[in-house]
Structure formats: structure tokens, C-alpha cells
Amino acid sequence: MKLPCLALPSAFVSPLRRLAQTRSSPPSSSAQKRGLALMSEGEGVRATRRLGFSDMMVTPVCLGTMTWGEQNSEDEAHAQLDYAIKERGVNFIDTAEMYPVPTAQHTQGLTEKYLGTWLAKNQDWRHKIYIATKVAGFMADSYMVAGRLKENGYLAINGKQKGPARHDPESIHRACRASLARMQTSYIDLYQLHWPDRYVPKFGSTVYDPAQHYPTAVPFEIICRAIKELLDEGLIRSWGLSNETPFGVAQFAAAAHRVGIPKPVSIQNSFSLVHREFEQTLAESCAHWNYNLSLLPWSPLAGGALSGKYLEGQKPEGARMTIWPFFQSRWLNPRCVSAIERYKALADAEGMSLTTLSLAWINSRNYMENGSTIIGATKMDQLKECIDAFEEGVTLSERTLEAIDEVHLDCRDPSQFI
Predict the structure, then answer these.
(1) What pLDDT is stored for residue 22 in this prediction?
(2) Polar residues bias located where (predicted)?
């Protein structure tokens, strides 16, 4: 039986607020001395910050792309890029070899291709922006193999080859070169491992099941050696993790040291008002005094659920969960909807949209001083609203921050499942 979100005494909230200090607190003196987690000159969206130990100074908002090629056309993708980069100053773009989603053989690679055709028309902008992409993690039998071949034009739709998607050196090299070709660029600023090659609970699952462990996972050091080869060739300039665990972060950092490459500079994990697991499990590992991995939150609006557009049973035409009701449906389970309704009430009381409240809350976290939130939109008004949430002056009151924590304690991570 599913239980509703239960109210807890307010006494539980204050200790949490003391532990989860917001960015209203100044950076520590140790961070200032080391030059870590500090912003450069600029305000709002244009106030850049250093990504991990890299040389990248990225904006607090990163343009996500996973709808391009499915919900968005090539022209719409280019319009988003023009607006975000040229008009609003966003300098960070995130994509992946498997995009768009839901992933399918007939669309695989289109997102990177659309980014590539924009870069071909805007070559003067390439050195002004940072591009991040991802190599797919373990899949036992995948058409991703076909999308990595030159003979198929680096699109899976043009080939019939299938096989396991892995993080072995050959797969990583093929995937990287295919991404470079689709994006029409000679280098990738941030190359990420989309999800682990080994078994881990992911995409909503929370319980580690030993029965799913497989001993053939590619060793951490072998993966790092493949990354080293890409770094040495100049094909990538830094690397990062995604959908990773504290164990994985520690192992990759140790393996990178043994291989002689820099540690990963970022971690792209799910993080939102309805999934705050990062705070408990990864914030310590990623702190600048430890491994210094910048957080790149994905699905900060819980697949659009935290815009409020699905409340009261609404099914907006063209919306992701209207088209694919079973894709990422965890964002709309009863406990999640109950929490979102309460967050919506807080946003109303604060005089802002639920979208703005959700994104401004992420931006208020102290560990986002060197992070960048990945936003995504299918319509230009949605894109504008998301970027606006990172402008100077968009802040949440102390009362609202405490109320958000109270909802969280009542209904902790409602989007996750056993």
C-alpha cells in the first residue's frame, strides 16, 4: 500500500536548514585560497564558475538538448541555440550520443547532428562555448553500435549492426569519434560516461540488488586508460561522470591517479525538489576539498512535472508525459504529485511560478557554486522562463526555503522506487 506524504513536526526542519546552508553564505577561505568554486565577474546567467579542476568557466545554466530530433525539429533546435547563447549568454551545452529520448534507432544521433549543423553555420562561436556529450553505458544489445560507424553516416538508422554498448576502449573511441563527426567539431570540452558499465541502481531505482551484479564489467582503470588516450589525442579536453555512485566516484578518482590523468571534473546526476539523494550520498565526495566534482543536475524539473503542467490530471498536448505516459512515469506517481502540489502552493505564496521556484532552489544550494543546472524545453517561452530563473535577484525567502525542507522531510524523494 502506498502511503501519503506525512507531516512531521517543524522541529525537524531547523537542523536540516543548518546542515544545508544556501549560497547566501560566502565561499570558505580555503576555497578562496585554492581558487575553487568561485564565480568570475558577471551577474545572473552570465556569472560563470569553474567546473571542477578544469579550465572551463561555465554559466550557472546549461542548455539541455535531448528533445531535439523527437519533440523539436532542426530549425527549433537552432532557434534555441541562438536564443540561449547569443541573446542570454549561456555558454554550456549538454548532449549525448543516444539522444533524443525516448531513444530509438530511427532518431539516434539526431541531437548531436542538429548541434553540428548549427556549429557549421556559427563557426565563430565554437571557441566561446563549451560542449559536453556522453558515451552510452552498458546495454546488452544495442543499435548504438551502428550509430558509431562511418559507413552508416554515424546514424543508427542507416545500419543493421547491433551489439553490446560498453565502456571498453574500442567502444569509447568509436563513440567519441562518431560524436565529433556528428557535431562537426574537432574536440569535445567535456566527455561524460552516461551511466556506469557495471550494474548500479539507476533511473529511479534505489536498492542495490547483488543478483544483478555481473563480473564482466570493464575495470575502472581500463576505462581511464581509454579516456587518457582521448585526452592525449586532443579529442576531449576533460571528462566527467553521470548517474554515478559514491563508490564509483572514489574508484574513478583513484584509477585516474594511477593512470596519470586528471580526475573527472563533473558528475551529471538526477537532482530536483523530488529527488535530493545527492545531498546525502554524493555531496561529500564531490566537495571542492575532496574530489571537487561539479554537479550538473539533470531533470531539475522532474521531466516537466515540476512546472505544474500535469497537476489535476492535465495532459498538455505535445508534452512528454502526454505522448509517452510510461516514459519516466515515476515523476507522476501519487506521492510525487502530492509533494508537487505542496511545492506549487509555496510557489504561489512566493509570487513566482513553480518552474522558477524549482530552479531557483537548486541554484541556491552551496554545492552549486561550481555547478551548472541542465535545463530543457520544447517551446521558446519555456526556455525563457527556465533561463530567467538564474538571473540576478531571483531568490527564495528564508521562510520558503524552510517550507521546502519541511515538504522534503514529509515526503522524501517521492520520485524514487524500490
Answers:
(1) 57
(2) 21-32
Strands 163-165 and 92-94: unpaired
CA 153, 177, 131: angle at the middle one, nearest 5? Answer: 105
d(CA 294, CA 370): 6
Query: And the C-alpha cell for 235?
Result: 579529442
DSSP string, 93-135: EE--TT-SSS--TTTTTHHHHHHHHHHHH-GGGGGGSEEEEEE
Determine contact, residues 293/266, Cβ cutoff 8 Å: yes
What are the cell numbers at 254?
A: 583513484
The closest alpha carbon to 364, from 2, 98, 25, belongs to 25
- Structural domain boundaries in the chain: 39-331+352-396
Report the phi/psi class of residue 333: left, alpha or beta, with left for phi > 0 and alpha for psi in -120 to 50.
beta
What is the gyration radius of the CA atoms in the chain, in angstroms? 20
Beta bridge partners of 22: 365
Instruction: Give the C-alpha separation, 369 to 371, whole Å.
Output: 6
**Residue 118 confidence class, pLDDT cut points 50, 70, 90:** very high
Nine-digit cell string for 6:
506525512
Among 176, 252, 173, 266, smallest CA distance to 219 is for: 252
**DSSP-derived secondary structure letter, 389:** T
Q: At a CB cut-off of 8 Å and minimum separation 6, what does 35 contact?
A: 50
Give the amino acid at 370.
Answer: N
241-284: per-residue pLDDT in tens? 999 999 999 999 999 999 999 999 999 999 999 999 999 999 99
For the domain spanning 39-331+352-396, the CATH number is: 3.20.20.100
Query: Does the bond joining 102 to the residue before it have cis omega, within 30 degrees of 0?
Result: yes
Find the angle CA(97)-CA(362)-CA(114) to the nearest 5 degrees. Answer: 25
Bridge partners of 266, per DSSP, are 294
Q: Which residues are CB-contacts of 8 (< 8 A; sequence separation ≥ 6)? A: 406, 409, 410
- Per-residue pLDDT of 138-182, as tens digits, reads 999 999 999 999 999 999 999 999 999 999 999 999 999 999 999
Residues forming the active site: 99
Query: Residues 162, 145: contact at Cβ < 8 Å?
Result: yes
